[in-house]
Design a protein that fits this description.
Length: 154
């Protein structure tokens, strides 16, 4: 599958972001155009997803995709790279922040369109891991990080 770069005059948008919730049979995709509210989620097969992404490239020079790491490895990531798409594979996140028991593919896809959320998830997870390692090795005290309930290294 090859794509051609659209000319500046034929571009409709500055950027298109696609949040993808990947499953064995279907992909749930949310599209966000130029920072607007994400559009309704669409359900598609793998082949339909690749065709959809190629169609998005015809509308803009900047297509960004994001999906959660999982059992599918990096096959989709490599496919997007071949197409010239900027893709992010992020750490899986429970988007049900209020603990209401809501698990919904549509919510996952929409949440993955929000760049500030996905970056925050990765940044917070990395920083927490570093802080916990410092406490574990004795390089810092737990109260330094507001984690008074954790025992310091012995």
């Amino acid at each position: 599958m090859t794509t051609s770069t659209p000319s500046q005059s034929s571009l409709s948008y500055e950027a298109i972001k696609l949040g993808i919730d990947a499953h064995a049979k279907y992909y749930w995709v949310s599209r966000q155009v130029d920072g607007a509210t994400p559009q309704p989620v669409q359900k598609m097969t793998y082949d339909e997803l690749l065709l959809f992404v190629v169609r998005q490239q015809k509308l803009t020079n900047k297509v960004v995709t994001c999906y959660e790491a999982g059992a599918f490895g990096f096959h989709l990531h490599r496919q997007f790279e071949k197409l010239g798409i900027q893709n992010y594979v992020v750490q899986p996140q429970d988007w049900d922040e209020r603990g209401k028991g809501v698990k919904n593919n549509r919510l996952d896809a929409v949440a993955l369109c929000q760049p500030s959320r996905k970056k925050a998830v990765v940044a917070i997870a990395r920083q927490l891991a570093v802080d916990l390692w410092r406490i574990f090795t004795g390089a810092a005290k737990s109260e330094t990080f507001g984690l008074n309930y954790l025992p310091d290294a012995v």
